[in-house]
Specification:
Structural class: alpha+beta
Helix content: 25-40%
Strand order of the largest sheet: 1-2-8-3-9-16-10-15
Largest sheet: 8 strands, mixed
Shape: globular
CATH class of the largest domain: Alpha Beta
Number of domains: 2
Strand content: 15-25%
Number of helices: 10
Number of strands: 18
Distance between the termini: 34 Å
CATH architecture of the largest domain: 3-Layer(aba) Sandwich
Order of helices and strands: HHEEEEEEEHEHEEEHEEHEHHEHEEEH
Length: 405
Amino acid sequence: MSVVLDRFLKYVSKDTTSSMHSESYPSTPSQLEFAQALAKELGEIGLSSVKLDAYGYVTATLPANRAGVPVLGLLAHIDTSSEMRGSDIRPRIVEYQGGDIPLDKKGQIVLSEEMFPQLRDYTGCHLIVTDGSTLLGADDKAGVAEIVTAAQYLLMHPELPHGEIRLAFTPDEEVGQGTRYFNVEQFGAEFAYTVDGGPLGSIEFENFNAADADITINGINIHPGSAKNKMKNSTQIAMELNALLPSGERPEYTEGYEGFFHLASIHGDVSKTRMHYIIRDHSMQKFNDKKKCLEKIAQYLNDKYGRDTVLMTITDSYYNMLDKIAGHMKLIDLVKASFTDCGVVPRVAPIRGGTDGARLSYCGLPCPNLSTGGENFHGKFEFISVEALETMVDVLICLVGKFCG
């Protein structure tokens, strides 16, 4: 068993699911427990300045063996998504020769080549899959394992040139709070990469502008037998609000650079309904237009049904990092060359989502996102190949060397 594979399997055996509804930070105790174990491990393999702070951030330093090289940061997040159970994960390794992969013992949950045609690209590889009852946790335990393994290798091979490397492992990325308390100045890197992407070779430095819209609709409940001209049904108004949005601008109808409104949750009754939307667009102009669209709809419904019928708060979450990376395209050139040298075709694509790197870039730390090698994140069909794990370690080792010039 390779070092990175052994490390990855150890990491995914620990539940680090984050919670959207928690008021603590990290949002779950299990993340802090994992962070404590990770900090201990980093010290044991010989990294210096290992620190675990009160917020669950783990940082460490690989000291430079070459002078005059910019300090480089490598980051990954320790939490996993709450969209599917992340405890009691039972991964197994399949030597893939094509076709479908039954995940559960009864063969009723199948990783299907028809549904996931990218499986064909992994013929001859060793795939780490779930048992169909949990996610796998490659997002982002793979990134953590790859960074730690690369750092350990560099410690064991001092003949390989590199500048100072700063490592950071963060909680709560999956609930949009990964950099909430992260101190960029204290971290001390000039440039950085998050290792939190998907298929091997992906390089991402464009992402959505993002906002959340929290809406409360206030109704009036009257017995339906005497409701005429009196009842104000908040659930009906909620459906009307949703119908007034552009029907083609939903996640299921968009791709590439196209933005959307996504009704993430709705619950209520006649008296009160609460809705939560996420708003996304790569274009700042279109992003702002989408927010204005929701505001106009809310105003229209308040004019129609009465003041304060629709109460809405729109909160910006993060912005497209492209504006902050554009002046540092050497970061992209170096990682392209690193992938190529490791036999991987680099693929630049926009993220239809967000990344801690976007927030860090706006805090003054240019931070593109790199692949982990994983596929189908956040669900039971998640998988990653052993070969991808091992190759990403090679890519990171190659990358830090290229910063030496």
